[in-house]
Design brief:
The chain contains six helices and two strands. By secondary structure, it is mainly alpha-helical. It has one domain. The chain has a two-stranded antiparallel sheet. The two termini are 18 Å apart. The mean pLDDT is 92.
Length: 147
């Protein structure tokens, strides 16, 4: 399977994206450790701001920019579209986690949160965007359905 990602002319600093992913993983791990998923609602709104707007009001983006500046990390500009797609997936995961948590399906909330943690850590630690793999799979799936 050839990896395919959405593309756009807009750019984003990959260091900031990776810091955001690390913060998401820490928040999600905290939710699992304390069996309290209310911080996922915060992540839901923050993912929405980054997925459906330019992210100007995203608290996680603001914090990540400050951390990157504080560590004097030189910007590594990347295409924004795959990161927006990944933020949309994060929004979907948080929506799903919030729903199953509110309906008292704690094991399902734990499983979905664990998957989100793995995805966030892959992005943060290894720059592996699972969103690109999912996007590639969706492209193959839609091409098969069109034929």
């Amino acid at each position: 399977m050839e990896l395919s990602c959405p593309v756009s002319a807009e750019r984003i600093n990959e260091n900031v994206v990776r810091i955001i992913a690390f913060i998401v993983a820490v928040i999600a791990i905290t939710c699992v450790v304390f069996s309290n998923y209310w911080a996922i609602v915060f992540l839901l709104f923050d993912f929405a701001l980054r997925a459906f707007t330019i992210g100007k009001f995203s608290l996680l983006k603001f914090i990540a920019i400050k951390i990157a500046d504080g560590l004097s990390l030189s910007p590594k500009m990347k295409d924004l579209a795959p990161k927006k797609f990944a933020a949309t997936l994060g929004f979907g995961f948080c929506l799903l986690i919030t729903a199953v948590f509110l309906f008292d399906f704690y094991n399902a909330a734990l499983i979905f949160t664990s998957v989100m943690i793995v995805f966030a850590l892959l992005e943060s630690l290894f720059a592996i965007c699972v969103g690109c793999y999912i996007y590639s799979f969706l492209q193959i799936f839609t091409k098969k359905n069109e034929s």
